[in-house]
Fold:
Amino acid sequence: MKLKLTNEQKLILSQKMQQSLKLLQMNSHELETYLNELSMENPLIEVVPPREMPPSHEKQFSARTTTDPDIMSRTIADTPHNTLYDSVKEQINYLRIPELLRRELIWLADEMNERGYLPKEEPELYAFGGSIERYENAVKVFQSLEPAGVGARTLGECLLIQLRRRGEEDDISREICLSYLDRLAKGQLNYIASKLNVTVGRIEQARSLIAGLEPNPSNGYYGGKQTMYIRPDVEVVQDNDGLAVAIADRYMPTYGIDSFYLDMSEREDLSDEERTYFREKLTQAKWAMSCVDRRAAMLMACAKKILAVQHDFFVDGVSPIKPLTMAELAEELGVHVSTVSRTVRSKYISCRWGVFCLADFFKQSSTGENVTEDGVLRMIKDIIAAEDPRSPLSDKAIAEKLSERGVSISRRTVAKYRENAMIPSTTGRRKR
Structure:
């Protein structure tokens, strides 16, 4: 019996350790998704909406990387794209609404097609308790999300949503959107004018207005589904003592133990089954919260060390990256190197110079130093500025000069830098 209990304890410990390691290597987006899903099945986990909504430009973050060709190709291949589906799910998670309505909105998001439309067919009301009123209410909330037009069931409805959002809806434009879009597309302005009893000029005005609307809400978004965009996990900030690091959590919900269900779990009139249920859920919630705290502490420890070692880079954005290995950091923190690896994996740090992958600050070149993308471009421009204009350097020659400065990249990579910076080739730079 004692052996059986010991094995069960080991199994529970193993499961807890797996959860702890799983949370440690999650980036902020994955962590938020995981905790939101966990809260759906555990009533003792309380979700408090974030203090701030993310700015619209957060969608445009793209990771900047170092000059190692392998890292560069990996970043290009692995950089996530922001999809309309992702954006909608993100907004739903930030809404301060009842959880039942949130689940209904997520159901609608799953029904949305690639263009951002909901099905025109009769809805499956089982997800709304068989109530058409609940369905229509959920659709109305869904259609209030960004971009304007998302959640429409027809083209006319999509255009009307945009007109209303812009305050430009009137009787004529509404009638055209609902009944005469086909005629408008065929240029049958006289027909529409006669039906609506207005002048052709008035229809032309409405046509110009409608022509400026977006028929596909998904335009500007990546076409896939359920792909994450880059959200910084930590950020470099300016305080009274200079630069410091902070967890970038102001756009994330906060999580804790729900006091209502905690009080309920302590009631004396609970059945044995209910008492066991609450005890298990409370244990799970406390362990999840402790894992989140440990993740934050380890992430801060790693970020502080990166800032201390790479301080010059964070000040000017072009200074070479100084030598730093995960093994060195692990020894300093008193943890296994795999813990550091999990902590920095797939996580990003933002600063005034852009958003960078934490793991890239541990990469080293053949000389023991690493250089940022901007730093390499600056070197290339300096080399070209100093060349003989009558005999400009080839990309291979530039790569060789970079190698002399401790930056080892290929001729092809030099060409990519040069072309992206719109610097002419050897022929274009030659002066006779």
